[in-house]
Amino acid sequence: MSTATSESIQAFTAAAFSTPDKFTEFCANGGKPLGGIIGGKSVSGSMNATFQSTDPGSQEVLATVCEMGEAEVAAAVDVAQKAFASWKDTPLEDRIALVNKLVQLCDRDRDVLLACEIRDGGKVSELAEGDFTQIRECAEYFSSVAQKIAMGDGAAMKVGDGVKGYTYREPWGVVAGIIPWNYPIVLTSWFIFPALLSGNTIIIKPAEDTPLSALYIANLAAEAGFPPGVINVVPGRGEITGQCIAEHPGVRYISFTGSPGIGQHILRICDRHGTRMKREMGGNGSAIVLDDADPELVARTVGRYVNQHFGQTCCTIHRVYVDKKIADPFIDAQKAFMEDLTIGYQADEGTQLGAVVNPTQQRRILQAQSETVSRGGEVLLSGGVAEVSGRDGFYIKPALYRTEPGVDCNPKEVFHTFATVCPVDSAEQALQLANSSPYGLGASVWTPDLDRGVALAKQFRDGTCQVNCHNSVAYGLPYGGQGISGGPGGGVNCEDTFLDYTQVKAVYVADYPG
Ligand code: ADP
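That is the input. Now the predicted structure with adenosine-5'-diphosphate docked in place:
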């Protein structure tokens, strides 16, 4: 039985974090910009262009990074193709041993990788530490999957007189991961381990806001002994570096996480030359709170998820449908929880709501807050810019609105501590409203009656359906989206994910005629 009390439910919170010297030295790179990593070499790029990676909570420049253009993407594809010739035939035990070594090196340099998440990504330590554990968990899970899945020839079947047929499963070749800025270490791990263990060589395109962890992990991979060309990193803007990846016919498969507009755009490009692509493209997650739920306990728990990484978590809750019978105490408790969040610098002890990643995001969120009001949302917490003394970051206050069925004031993903609460007459009405979004990544039902909760949760049009929990991920279960939130493929974190990084051919063999 759960022992949680409403007071014990707290927002994700920062411990004080001091930046390790090793991170500072890595970023300084002896006074030179950090290059991309292509064929095991640091490459400054033919465009002679650089960009700065900054700390969103202070705008301090952390590192200057070289931007990779068309020539560098072509070079990365070329070296990855060459490396594929031997990597695909490297025995699985050897690939697993290299992955294990890489994980050990990540553990050794945990503080540096935490600094990447906290300083470059703007995350509080409680969340960053959880993200870090995903490196090992993901590597171990996909190592065990790799040992189970039969690559190569499947069982032969007779398909005619003197004719047999069988399947042949093989890696794609060169695959690319286009990674967003909100969970850099987690999403890099979710991409690299299944892709590498199934025998592909890879190109990582980190987000321009958070390039540091991928570059650091690639250095560790070289130290672990991965052959040059197996893991390449091409930092740069989406419309330059990312676009060149999408347009390169030598990339056989792309794993993309980001916004629906960009995901749909890349898919159209890929389709021109047959590159396959899987996509996770955000959400506008809903929570249904039934009449038998404890309003205070659930309001605080929902508030914790609304604020997970300051609402910049793809599947998190931004729409709440609460039964009218408990709506008033629920709303009071959720408002109190969000109002009490400690806004501050993400590396300072006690911070619960830090800065958003860049000024564009800040503008988008502030605009969405005012649109919610103009579309009929009743303001409970008004949002707006927040000031943090001594810190020049992109801070915004939490926003909470009361709404009612038929008032469409929260139609798109707003990547912040932002939610609308809509009192409803029934669970059925809540379900219909929850499913009215074009997104479909994650949704939850909150009730002590688990049977009732499960029956409702299964009716969500979402990739992840949850009862009394949210933002759930576990290795062995698919994490993916329905509607405009994702597809195709098996989502991430399950056996189908591994299969996504492989292709299957049918082989027919007939006796020689005559
Ligand atoms: P967000 O709005 O969350 O920043 P985006 O979809 O813009 O999400 O970005 C997600 C990832 O896609 C980033 O690595 C970004 O650089 C990349 N990206 C953006 N535009 C393109 C594009 N035209 N082609 C390929 N990748 C892109």
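The chain has 15 helices and 21 strands.
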